[in-house]
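Backbone shape codes
____________________
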Amino acid sequence: MENYTVCQLQKDMRFEGFLLIRSAEKRKDSKGNDYVDMNLTDRTGEINCKIWNWDPEAEAPEAGTTIKVRGLIQEYNGRLQLRVEKWRPATDEDPVDMNSLVPCAPRKPEDMMQEIRETISSFENEDLRKLTEGMLEIAGDRLSWFPAAQRMHHAERSGLLHHTTDMLKLARDLLEVYPWLNRDLLLAGVIIHDLGKIEEMKSDRTGNVTDYTRDGQLLGHLVRGITNLNRVAEKKGVTGEMLVLLEHMLLSHHGESEYGSPKPPMFPEAEALHWIDILDARMNTIKTATDKTPPGAFSEKIYSLDRRIYHPLY
């Protein structure tokens, strides 16, 4: 049987191969029988499946586990679904290539971390350097593999670094057009704006997010980012204008209250951060969609964009 990636699957095709469990939940059908609802993924996409007649005493498979699965591709409510005929956990003897299963950032995490550290070392403002370095200390080693989202943009291993370093490139270009912006403040805002996500989501080292943490549910990464920044400021002895400006940038970078920001951006660098964030997030979402869509076709509806995306015949 030919090996297909998830993005190549079509209705009535047969599939047999290794996939990673993104999520798995035990449920009951209309007759009260147990089954497991699973989302399976490789680096190209994700597909839902259901395993019926599940043992009532058994737990659902653990997210982040690799399994070998065989079945038929069907369509349900306009979406492809895998009807599982047989499956088992992968073993150490199986020829599993994790690089084919896990979406990863296109650059090495150590290279992206080096770019961020070199940017911080170039700051002329001592307060911004202290605050940004302190926020990296809180993030720790998790930043090297943490994703930027569960399902939307940069939902990949090292996705948070990918998002941050691409935003740094955009910010530097923007500074060429608007040189009157405060360089250190804008770049510091880019580096720390999403670090609170590390405490917002539950992710394993593959970059697979299974759920939101208690902090993520009750506070979110904007508020957690502010509290972490204040911890750093107290520890480093930083007070005054730059601290308040950086706090506002964290609080306002989503732009509007309906997206979680209680205040809109109220000074130039905050406005710039907001639009750089939106541009990079949307372009990554669109690229992910077109990578999964044949040229000349439209993607499925992208709910974060509220539209389908066309893959042009360039």
